[in-house]
Design brief:
Largest sheet: 4 strands, parallel
CATH class: Alpha Beta
Structural class: alpha/beta
Radius of gyration: 15 Å
CATH superfamily: Lumazine/riboflavin synthase
CATH architecture: 3-Layer(aba) Sandwich
Number of domains: 1
Distance between the termini: 35 Å
Length: 162
């Protein structure tokens, strides 16, 4: 595994004045809440630390990871929202359900971003075990919520520089 024993959540992005004017939407799956809420909370803290105003972070819940694309689309319709972070967690079970959910979610999130021409970030864990998910939601591999939030900011910086 490429990420074995690495904390990938270290960031090089610095707080910026331009961040205070951006509005970030977030859709968070209620399924596997100990994982998704840890990622949500870390993403929110990161955004605030980098200069996004707390009242400009709009957080909404969806039942599960499969519903993230439609939730993201509802937010993307709002022209005031500059970027959307989608947070979910799918843990492999005994059936192919895992494959269908992961594929549908990834493709759906991609389509929303392309349709609305705004960053829609894939902050979804797709792990084999709960332990792997925990390691990526604040454990030894960092917190993927932070990485998703950083990606949103970097994509907005790119948008504004093009």
């Amino acid at each position: 595994m490429a990420t074995k024993l690495k904390n990938l959540s270290e960031t090089n992005i610095t707080a910026g004045k331009q961040f205070k004017n951006w509005t970030i939407g977030m859709v968070v799956a209620d399924w596997n809440p100990t994982i998704t809420y840890a990622m949500r909370d870390a993403a929110i803290s990161f955004l605030i630390e980098k200069g996004i105003k707390k009242n400009k972070i709009k957080v909404y819940a969806v039942p599960g990871t499969f519903e993230l694309p439609l939730g993201a689309q509802y937010l993307a319709i709002d022209a005031k929202i500059d970027a959307i972070i989608s947070i979910g967690c799918v843990i492999q079970g005994e059936t192919r359900h895992f494959d269908f959910i992961c594929d549908a979610c990834a493709n759906g999130i991609t389509q929303v971003g392309l349709k609305f021409n705004k960053p829609v970030i894939f902050g979804v864990l797709t792990t084999q075990t709960l332990e792997q998910a925990e390691a990526r939601a604040g454990g030894k591999h960092g917190n993927k919520g932070i990485e998703a939030a950083e990606t949103a900011l970097k994509m907005l910086l790119l948008r504004d520089s093009v």
